[in-house]
Amino acid sequence: MSVSESIHIDGTWRTAADGGTREVLDPADATTLAVVAEGDTADTDAAVAAARRAFDQGPWPHTPTAERAALLRRVADLLQRDREEIALIESRDTGKTLEEGRVDVDDVTNAFRYFADLVMNESGGRVVDAGSADVHSVVVHEPVGVCALITPWNYPLLQASWKVAPALAAGNTFVIKPSEVTPMSTVHLVKLLVEAGLPAGVANLVTGAGLPVGQRLAEHPDVDLFSFTGGLVSGTKAGAAAVAGAKKVALELGGKNPNVVFADACATDEGFDTAVDQALNAAFIHSGQVCSAGARLIVEESVKDRFVAELVSRAQRIKLGRGTEEGVECGPLVSQQQLEKTEGYVASALAEGAELRCGGERPKPSAVRPAGGYFYSPTVLDNCHRGMRVIREETFGPLLTVETFSTEDEAVTLANDTEYGLAGAVFSGDTARARRVAARLRHGTVWINDFHPYLPQAEWGGMGKSGVGRELGPHGLAEYRETKHVYENLRPAPVRWFAG
């Protein structure tokens, strides 16, 4: 398979129907990393048709649960076999560090194993007490059908696994469209699915742009479920098209996530060090290109000056460079577009009265930062307020804004003052306070004295405009199922409702 044969339909790798291709760029130096097929509507229709045939006529939906789980475990083993290769692909394609790429592969492996275990541990259905010994009533779960899966550019392999693993565990077929910016690890994942023995037509891949591929998947009449992870604007537009066709819809649309630090979290040297370290982790992992990034630091006024001074000092020492280089802690932004978007947010924040404490510029080229790469220095913006665009919108860059509060109620009000509601954190040395504040935060995930960890067995998703539905956990599997009630009359007899 040449790289340009990145479209996989009905068990066959192929080029785009019209011969179109796209260059995938290395964000560290803007050189061509690969050339992939640029699919269009014809390719999308062919992929959906293959998935439809595989669901309606193929064996996968009726494959015993144990066999489906075994295949998922084989995929997990193959992911670990190729761990270094995939981590390198992910690092070069997205710009993240090689170690982050390794962590991603391990997390993807865990997702496949979790959903394999989940379906194996289920019973044959939920028996419903109908109030009569003459009735057997049971609620069972069946696959939805053909699933359209749209994944983002920041965590292409991880987000693919959150959709592919439960979709397959439930017995569905699918068409997946990775971001056109970072498609390479998804191509590798589909290769592993084939190697693991997945029947032809169950897994279909179309590389291409959101328009036309993503939009066509959203509106296609033969798609039963549309699952999208990405930006708010494109996600709501595609979701509306899917809803218009009465499809099941799951949307994860990002976040603007608060990291609330109380003074009592900093009462000891160890507590202070931990809170500062976690604030850096929250904001600057993967150059801030994380939907759950803690880009909003909301710190108690009494410790603000000391906290921000130490934060700035450490942010200035973050080692920025090509993700595959030894010792690099933070890679480039994913594209020129994202770099310019980040610069625009900084400019608007400064115009609106923010104080630049560090960063705010493209760093000079060096031995680990090639000229032409999309690098931007970790940036801290102080004295920010809720009217600023940088506070209201998801920035997806290495930008940390600082707000302050004096009371617990004020902290909660600031943290909840967002149209998003994906994730947030509270740092406090007072357990009762931390849990009390966590209970009041309107976010789908809340961390206490930590930031960023997730568990495949715990649901992930947001409130407000952060999306609809959940991934991971039992509810993540339920997204890919239909629920059916089977009512069996064990002693059938005439009803005699009508006299005749």
In percent terms, what proportion of residues is strand?
A: 15-25%
Q: Tell me, briefly, the overall form.
A: globular
Mean pLDDT: 97
Number of helices: 15
Alpha carbon gyration radius = 24 Å
Separation of termini?
A: 70 Å
Tell me the structural class. Answer: alpha/beta
If strands are numbered along the chain, what order do they take across the biggest sheet? 14-15-16-13-12-17-18
Describe this structure in words.
The chain is α/β, with parallel strands linked by helices and 500 residues long. Helix content is 39%, strand content 19%. It is built from 15 helices and 20 strands. The strands form five sheets. It has a seven-stranded mixed sheet, sandwiched between helices. Strands 9-8-7-10-11-19 form a six-stranded mixed sheet, with helices on both faces. A three-stranded antiparallel sheet has the order 5-6-20, with no helix packed on it. α5 links the parallel β7 and β8. α2 runs antiparallel to α4. The radius of gyration is 24 Å and the shape is globular. The model has no long low-confidence stretch (mean pLDDT 97). Pathway: Amine and polyamine biosynthesis; betaine biosynthesis via choline pathway; betaine from betaine aldehyde: step 1/1. Keywords: NAD, Oxidoreductase. Belongs to the aldehyde dehydrogenase family. It comes from Streptomyces tubbatahanensis. InterPro entries: Ald_DH/histidinol_DH (IPR016161), Ald_DH_C (IPR016163), Ald_DH_CS_CYS (IPR016160), Ald_DH_CS_GLU (IPR029510), Ald_DH_N (IPR016162), Aldehyde_DH_dom (IPR015590).
